[in-house]
Amino acid sequence: MSDTQVVTRFAPSPTGYLHIGGARTALFNWLYARGRGGKFLLRIEDTDRARSTPEATEAILKGLTWLGLDWDGDPISQFERRDRHAAVARQMLADGTAYKCFSTPEEIAAWREANPRQPFQSPWRDATDLPDRPYAIRLRAPRDGETVIDDAVQGQVRVANDQLDDMIILRSDGTPTYMLAVVVDDHDMGVTHVIRGDDHLTNTFRQVQIFDAMGWPRPVFAHIPLIHGEDGKKLSKRHGAVGLHEFAALGYPPAAMRNYLARLGWSHGDDELFDDAQARDWFDLPGIGRAPARLDFKKLEHVSGHHIGAMADADLLAALDDFLSETGAPALTQRQRDRVAAALPALKEKAKTLPQLLDQARFALIDRPVEMDEKASKSLDTVSRGMLSTLTAAVQHVSWTRDELEGAAKRVAEENGVGLGKLAAPLRAALAGRTTTPSVFDMMTALGREESLARLQDQTELAG
């Protein structure tokens, strides 16, 4: 396939939110295609009409967009292609690679009860005297030998053909089955590589038989291990967040999620932290391991902290806007935006998540009068307020830079015979209403001269 353009696809069923495992599958397909100048297609497998909902489809599209994965062309609805699927089933019937089966559900159940360890064998496979009544169309699967798949992750996998039944490809009501629809869609969409969870491996044995029956080239299959929780068990709600929207609400930036999910089951040497360009250049199927990956929230926080620290301030501010919108919190006012923007260079090195960043930026989000917590109130007594009064006078006319402000504070502390820490505690309280904050001088530069002096003045007026 070296001369063929790479085409991958992500094909979720719209029956709920986008699971973290589905997000990783989409990412792997996106990286593989984008790294080779190929196409990444999106197909909504909405043939289960009872469970498929427009809301779930919208949630999937929103999740992929949030993650930063773009797709080529419009999303394809599998349900809308049902006539094409049925036409292929009838073509297979005409070609002799499929046959009419008139067995009723009751007859099939009775056969399976009598033959509990065997796949169903239809009595109609080679029948010539056919009744005039509704029928299903079954694949005429090979009975002898093996079906072999050269999987790009799992290696060569095989199953004895006598372990597989002649599966139904078109039901008696004329609706195509999922197994047929997937194969027809992959062929018609020109998919060259099917990268999906290894829970689909048993489906693949059946699907390649349809490819072979139609004389269509098989795509390259790559079945990736599932994601487990930190306890090594299959990921479920008991492990915490499992939906991509939940990770968004926890405040992990999309760039961090892309980095972390790429490393979840795939490796490139010892590289843990990388950007999108590196991921596209490096990603390849041999780097995917066969063992299940484990979700590790501590590692995710580490990756997230790295990306927050590395983000341009404008991008980080935009990420905060998206996070607030995602969680339904009020948007930043222009004054808050200006203050937070000024504070970001000092704040982003320590924050692991966007909520942590907002918590550190709380001093920039609040308005006067600053509300004190209990510990902050204890640091503001008559003596400390007197020092703040002296500091207020000392910084009235200095250049409003971090170095100048720190120098003035050191001089005031020395004049009062105390260390800088004794002055910093009440200054911290006056500016933020808390005892745990960023550097007092970083806060003063972010707040600006007017607001900083006003907050100090509010406290010094209480000195008497």
How would you sum up this structure, described in words?
The structure is a single chain. With 464 residues, the protein is mostly helical. The protein folds into four domains: 7-71 and 227-294, HUPs (Rossmann fold), CATH 3.40.50; 79-224, 3-Layer(aba) Sandwich (Rossmann fold); 312-365; 374-460, Arc Repressor Mutant, subunit A (Orthogonal Bundle), CATH 1.10.10.350. It has helices at residues 20-34, 54-67, 82-95, 105-114, 178-188, 201-214, 244-249, 254-262, 276-282, 297-310, 313-326, 334-347, 354-360, 362-365, 374-378, 382-394, 402-415, 420-432, 440-460; strands spanning 7-10, 39-44, 76-77, 98-101, 136-139, 146-151, 155-160, 168-170, 193-197, 220-224, 227-228, 293-294. The longest helix has 21 residues, at 440-460. The protein starts with 6 loop residues before the first strand and ends with a helix. The mean pLDDT is 95.
Give the N-to-C terminal Cα separation. Answer: 83 Å
In DSSP terms (H or I, runs of 4 or more residues), the helix count works out at 19
The count of strands amounts to 12
Structural class: mainly alpha
Tell me, briefly, the overall form: elongated
Biggest β-sheet: strands ordered side by side in the sheet: 1-2-3
Structural domain count: 4
List keywords for this structure.
19 helices; Rossmann fold; glutamate-tRNA ligase activity; 4 domains; mainly alpha; three-stranded parallel beta sheet; Glu/Gln-tRNA-synth_Ib_cat-dom; nucleotide-binding; about 475 residues; Rossmann-like_a/b/a_fold; three-stranded antiparallel beta sheet
